[in-house]
Predict the structure of Pyridoxal-phosphate dependent enzyme.
Amino acid sequence: MTIYSPIHIVNFKSIDNLSVKRDDLIDPYISGNKWRKLKHILTAVNLKQKHHLVTFGGAYSNHLIATAAAASRNKLKATAFVRGEKVENEMLLLCKLFGMTLIFVDRERYKNKKELFSSHFGNDESAYFIDEGGASNEAVIGCAEILDELPEVYDHIFCAAGTGTTAAGLLRGINTHQLNTKLHVIPVLKGGEFIKDEIGKYEENQGNLILHTDYHFGGYAKTTPELINFIKCFTAQTGMLIDPVYTAKMFYAINDMAQNEYFKPNAKILAIHTGGLFGILGMKEKLS
């Protein structure tokens, strides 16, 4: 299947001729790394003759929208366990419009996803478990394919990380192609050092991996006035939307590192725009 994910050049503040892989343009609802993660999962679902996707996420999860849309297009049933108290928002509305059933569970019970799946769907032979964010080896395979699409070799590749699955795929692609490209991972949550171990579950060779753990802005889905201002200026000057949870923190890191002369002159740098733009809706008050 041919996808639309061009490479655009961005200039902004200290960012000079940055290449951006526009995975956010792949699909309006199954966008960015969500499309890549679900691609091979759906193949496995078909091979195993399953008909019911069961997954997990927060109330503002892009993964839930992507799974709901993918299920609808493939004539599959979809259910999501949503972390926390029952709420209504634009993203969950989209999930329901795509036909997804939502089950709200408290945060303590949510921690044991396998138990939730077993207790609700253990007797449903058509049910297929999809971890939060689509984390799986199938997802890593899908994200590794990004390297197959690149027209040239880059000195540096950047991505934001929540679970590390996308980063694991990129690292696998770099290793498979035997490149010397450095993979820079920006954990978007506090204590992001664990991402290295998560990546290691899928890819042992981490020689080209560099984690930058100081760009979380207070933690997952947390922001500061400085980050909000960066988002507004970046989008207005580049015409490229970025979300406050993932991609904004990555682009901020690249700009900060460039400003501090981290890169050699004329270094070739690629940023992976992983989509997730519905995350803007969760912070519309801050961004307005």
